[in-house]
Description:
The complex is a heterodimer.
Chain A (H helix, E strand, L loop, with lengths): L3 E10 L3 E11 L4 E5 L6 H9 L6 E6 L2 E2 L10 E4 L11 H11 L4 H15 L14 H13 L5 E5 L7 H20 L5 E6 L2 H7 L2 E6 L2 E6 L1 H6 L4 H6 L6 E8 L2 E4 L2 E4 L2 H7 L7 E5 L4 E4 L3 E10 L3 E8 L2 E8 H4 L7 E6 L5 E4 L16
Parallel strand pairs in A: 3-8, 3-9, 6-7, 7-8
Antiparallel strand pairs in A: 1-2, 1-4, 4-5, 9-10, 11-12, 11-14, 12-13, 14-20, 15-19, 16-17, 16-19, 17-18
Helix pairs in contact in A: 2-3, 2-4, 3-4
Chain B lengths: L1 H51 L4 H4 L13 H8 L6 H32 L5 H13 L2 H15 L6 H8 L4 H12 L4 H8 L4 H30 L2 H6 L8 H11 L5 H21 L1 H14 L1
Helix pairs in contact in B: 3-13, 4-7, 4-8, 4-10, 5-8, 8-10, 8-14, 9-10, 10-13, 10-14, 12-13
Amino acid sequence: xxxxxxxxxxxxxxxxxxxxxxxxxxxxxxxxxxxxxxxxxxxxxxxxxxxxxxxxxxxxxxxxxxxxxxxxxxxxxxxxxxxxxxxxxxxxxxxxxxxxxxxxxxxxxxxxxxxxxxxxxxxxxxxxxxxxxxxxxxxxxxxxxxxxxxxxxxxxxxxxxxxxxxxxxxxxxxxxxxxxxxxxxxxxxxxxxxxxxxxxxxxxxxxxxxxxxxxxxxxxxxxxxxxxxxxxxxxxxxxxxxxxxxxxxxxxxxxxxxxxxxxxxxxxxxxxxxxxxxxxxxxxxxxxxxxxxxxxxxxxxxxxxxxxxxxxxxxxxxxxxxxxxxxxxxxxxxxxxxxxxxxxxxxxxxxxxxxxxxxxxxxxxxxxxx
Amino acid sequence: xxxxxxxxxxxxxxxxxxxxxxxxxxxxxxxxxxxxxxxxxxxxxxxxxxxxxxxxxxxxxxxxxxxxxxxxxxxxxxxxxxxxxxxxxxxxxxxxxxxxxxxxxxxxxxxxxxxxxxxxxxxxxxxxxxxxxxxxxxxxxxxxxxxxxxxxxxxxxxxxxxxxxxxxxxxxxxxxxxxxxxxxxxxxxxxxxxxxxxxxxxxxxxxxxxxxxxxxxxxxxxxxxxxxxxxxxxxxxxxxxxxxxxxxxxxxxxxxxxxxxxxxxxxxxxxxxxxxxxxxxxxxxxxxxxxxxxxxxxx
Lengths: 370, 299
């Protein structure tokens, strides 16, 4: 069992700079958890604390129910894949794979068998007698993965493992890692994963759940779909999704949301969810994909358009607020920059945020806790 | 007309190209001549030393040329025998007995000290490192007398111990500093990976850090080897029995004990004395330069 629990986890540097502010998180056995957030949000620091490479200054880390705060990395039943692979430069691939097992005192036949198995799974058999400097980025990353896999750890830790690869290779490695995780899980092997990335595509496509972090705090922990459809706050709303969610400041007035001089009637269901939570200053959130060109809705002036192939990212100005809508390429044909258009939000996908606190006040109350 | 103009232009282009090629050749010839001349001036004493060691005693001072008129090995044969009951082999052996523990000890102790300074946080680290730098800046001569008193009290006089024990306990601040600088230029990821793989600090040092540190370590060993080989003052202070003399003292011995200096013997033994250092330097030249440049520039 490799359940990972973080309890009020804190990291303070030099007694003054607080990097991690009391994180509480429960990662189930076999779960693929992604930590995502902008640079400096302490996602890597948190991962490194779980790994034992960074001292814990407050709170607890439990792996498989055992407190590991004071255990060295080698005794935590973890394996880690580093951003720049961190392969031992003077050892051949075989030596890199074998190192952990040798240190653990395993016998040679056992090590050889393990190397053969991992090399087969990751298709690195032809590379076994090469030095790291003779490997391409993708090959080196597979070897790094192999070095983690061979230990059969309880928890795999990935620290931005694909950042150094080109886009195409990244996509294929993403699939490979996800497949590998599913296979391990299907075979009943302990395979909890904590995966740190700043790339939301990786987060959305790989994670069972995603933990969005900012400035050392957890903003929301949810499944990729839930993060996309029900962002808990302005940060998550703006961070997840491409192009970013439109966030338009305004106020609530009865059943309407007022943006500058324009009124938008809110969906009765959204109003029902709002209930008594009616902040004085509010922000309306609507994804670019949920805006359609029509005769009703918010009026805006097209500032420029990005042709993406089958669709167009329409950038518009709504009374001094920036607005993006993703519309069909055919719909844009008749339009030009400078035209005034009406964009109608899909009522059920509208979110209302408290401008002061940042919370999504239009979520079902039971989801607010995150 | 056009054809004529073209031909004229082509001819002039070719003439230009030929001129440029000639200028390049002359420039290269000048540069290499100058380099050769300066190189010769710098190397001449060494070349003369080798040439003169094959001359007879009378011929040595008869001219500045280095090619012996009547080459003879008498300098080597007589010089090797020395004027003491011991041959030069004894002195080489003594040097070896000092160098071996000193070089090995330096490599091990300085690596450990540098690793600690570069990778760990411990109380008084900054103060201790400042002390290392201070020792680095201190002239060696200043510590000679207190060291002598200390070793006298330990009963180590007239033994090899004072010559290698301090170095084997990371006493050479320069090497510690050099290795610290080199280590700081190495990324720490591999060491972290080793820790995740279950290695403790010592295993990480031995299996991961030392192989990466090899160029710098080779430089350290070479420096220590050459400096020890050339060290004259240390053995002069601490060793009093002739049977314990290293080659540096033995060379001086042949000057002291012979009334009429047999210069060709001295020169022949000098050639033999510098041979090991030269051989080792050329064999490990690549690592040597890599180690110094990485430690000194990148740090």
